[in-house]
């Protein structure tokens, strides 16, 4: 009992120290943050010990992302990302990455205003999103969660590890809740100019991009998905990929044809 309390105390202390280090690092990195616009170029500057500067031309922006965790939702705040071509670049920290321009902890109204500056009449937080198919939940339950839960549960019964069985049952319940939350958050929408994708769990992420900046569209469908009449789309931009899972088959084909038509018929440069 004493050993358990000791380990719990040590764990809490380590987590608290890690949290303090994270907060301290954020303060050093974000100190004096400013965002300005010079002509068609966005410029952000920040940093306490060393001053960092990133600039990005408006025409090079491929995708805009608005990200909210649970605390951001409570405070009506969001982190906004402008993303450009990342070909040949390494995965860096979000603030330091040369292909991303981060605007941290703005209000949701400010985030919407900044999105509208980059993409005219683009409103990702005000869209009516279509949900993905309910087969999203069924697939993950049957293919991923259920086999592992049964295996661990049988193992626990055989070894008479009742605490382990209880942990597995609790873990399964939590996993199902997370799965349902993710299903509830998934959504997509598009209009004559933009594609919008929403996802998350407790928080929310919104992504939007102009249709003409799509470079490739991959239609994905397994045998099980075909029987259920669903498919997934993998949409490739210069800034990365956007995936919409478990759409209705007809909706997936309609969106794919719309994106490919826009890519083929539009002469506008994605740069």
In short:
The chain has 271 residues and is of the alpha+beta class.
Outline: flat
- Computed Rg: 22 Å
Low-confidence stretches: none
Q: Give me the secondary-structure category.
A: alpha+beta
Beta fraction of the residues?
25-35%
Element order, helices and strands?
Answer: HEEEEHEEHEHHEEEEHEEH
End-to-end separation: 63 Å
Count of the separate structural domains: 2
Helix content: 40-55%
Number of strands: 13
| Biggest sheet character | 7 strands, antiparallel
- Alpha plus pi helix count: 7
Strand order of the largest sheet: 6-5-4-10-9-8-7
Transmembrane segments: 6-33, 135-156, 162-184, 230-248
Protein name: PH domain-containing protein
Organism: Salinimonas marina
Domain YdbS-like PH: 183-258
Task: Please name the defining characteristics of this protein.
43% helix, YdbS-like_PH, transmembrane, seven-stranded antiparallel β-sheet, 2 domains, alpha+beta, 7 helices, flat, membrane, three-stranded antiparallel β-sheet, 271 residues
């Amino acid at each position: 009992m004493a050993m358990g309390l000791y380990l719990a105390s040590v764990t809490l202390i380590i987590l608290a120290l890690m949290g303090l280090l994270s907060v301290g690092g954020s303060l050093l990195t974000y100190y004096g943050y400013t965002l300005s616009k010079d002509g068609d170029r966005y410029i952000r500057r920040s940093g306490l010990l060393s001053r960092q500067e990133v600039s990005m031309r408006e025409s090079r922006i491929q995708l805009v992302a608005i990200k909210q965790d649970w605390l951001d939702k409570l405070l009506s705040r969001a982190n906004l990302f402008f993303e450009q071509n990342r070909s040949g670049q390494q995965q860096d920290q979000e603030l330091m990455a040369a292909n991303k321009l981060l605007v941290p902890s703005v209000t949701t109204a400010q985030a919407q205003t900044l999105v509208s500056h980059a993409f005219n009449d683009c409103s990702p937080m005000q869209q009516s999103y279509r949900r993905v198919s309910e087969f999203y939940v069924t697939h993950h339950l049957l293919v991923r969660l259920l086999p592992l839960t049964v295996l661990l549960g049988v193992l626990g019964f055989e070894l008479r590890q009742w605490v382990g069985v209880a942990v597995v049952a609790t873990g399964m319940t939590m996993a199902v809740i997370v799965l349902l939350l993710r299903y509830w958050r998934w959504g997509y929408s598009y209009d004559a100019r933009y594609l919008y994708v929403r996802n998350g769990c407790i928080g929310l992420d919104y992504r939007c991009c102009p249709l003409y900046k799509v470079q490739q569209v991959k239609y994905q469908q397994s045998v099980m998905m075909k029987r259920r009449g669903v498919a997934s789309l993998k949409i490739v931009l210069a800034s990365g990929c956007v995936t919409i899972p478990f759409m209705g088959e007809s909706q997936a084909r309609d969106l794919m044809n719309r994106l490919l038509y826009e890519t083929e018929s539009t002469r506008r440069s994605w740069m």
